[in-house]
Amino acid sequence: MRTEEQYRVLIVDDDGVDRMAVRRALRAAGVRAEVREAEDVHSALGVLREEPFDCVFLDYNLPGGDGLRVLRGARESGVDTPVVMLTGNEDAQTAVELMKAGAADYLSKNALTPEKLERSLRAAVRVHQAERHAREAQEEREAALAARSRFYAAMSHELRTPINAILGYNDLLLAGVYGPMSPQQTDGLERSQRAARHLLDLVNDVLDLSKLEAGKMEIVPEAVSLPELVEDLFVTVRPLAEERGAELRMEAEGCGEPVVTDPRRVRQIVLNLLSNAIKFGEGKPVDVRCAADEGWTRVEVVDRGSGIRAEDLPRIFDEFVQLPSASTGGTGLGLPISRRLAELLGGRLEAESAPGAGSTFRLVLPRAPAEGGPGGAVQASPSSLVMS
């Protein structure tokens, strides 16, 4: 549409009288339009590929093929101009075929009026513009996500090298390789080491996020015993639990059958849940419960800490969010990444909490992957990872 209520219209019909009828109907309806005409399939496709139009009025029966051929040929060429089919065929099946092929509307030549023609034209253009704006917004969003993912990945790779160097030299200093240090120096260096590890955790989380958003996070399913996986993780987090005075307990009755999933990603999710439960559990016992039912296996991590307010609960899965009650630090990416990984595995991550009653985080996994299989690698689709 060039100016307000001014359209570029293509009329495709082998009958000159019918073409003139459409022109007159547009004028009678008060529609301002620049009109081009075509008489057959070949010329119609040529004009559509070379010139932009706001709408096409297309006869169903044309020399060299019917209007469906023009419609399909235009779509295959990337032309998305809205098409209103004009047909003398009142068969409902024909109408269904036209709409399936992408027609915006269809009108009977036997009952063509200026009002119907105008209404169909304006509706077709309005819907097309709305769809185009939606596509443009989606393309802009995807481009922004891709740019952000590239930045995250580049930044993460650039930062990991110097951080690992700092950690390595700190380890050498703490081991006395460069000579003895005073207690004050050792304490300061240990603080520096903890800060560097925290920064490395943030960089690794950002790198994971960029892979997930770019659809480059790969999963490799295999048969996994979840109770054994949790027991291994208990070994990893036990020093933190002992520091906080938290007892680790597991209930795994009815969870003996292996699950076909990616053990590395499941470990990443459950390790994050366990670490959070210990940090926020106020030194009280942390329970891990594993159970199975029809086609699904659940792993619950339960703490008895201060809990999360109802208004804050939806926000814990947002990126870089730190709740006011979270005084133990963190990257603000652990739970968002864990939820995305759960969805990548074909499952989900849920949370229940209430102030003073602790929190329960529930990882629900299918007993077998939706696609792929043991030993088969599957990559995530970027669109499948968009979160609300």
In short:
This protein has 388 residues and is an alpha/beta fold. 47% of the residues lie in helices and 20% in strands.
Could you please describe the fold and organization of this structure?
The protein is α/β, with parallel strands linked by helices and 388 residues long. The chain folds into 3 domains: 6-112, Rossmann fold, CATH 3.40.50.2300; 140-214; 218-385, Histidine kinase-like ATPase, C-terminal domain (Heat Shock Protein 90, 2-Layer Sandwich), CATH 3.30.565. It is built from 9 helices and 16 strands. The strands form 5 sheets. The protein has a 5-stranded parallel beta sheet with strand order 2-1-3-6-7, sandwiched between helices. Helix 1 crosses helix 5. The chain starts with 5 loop residues before the first strand and ends in a 9-residue tail after the last strand. 29% of the residues are buried.
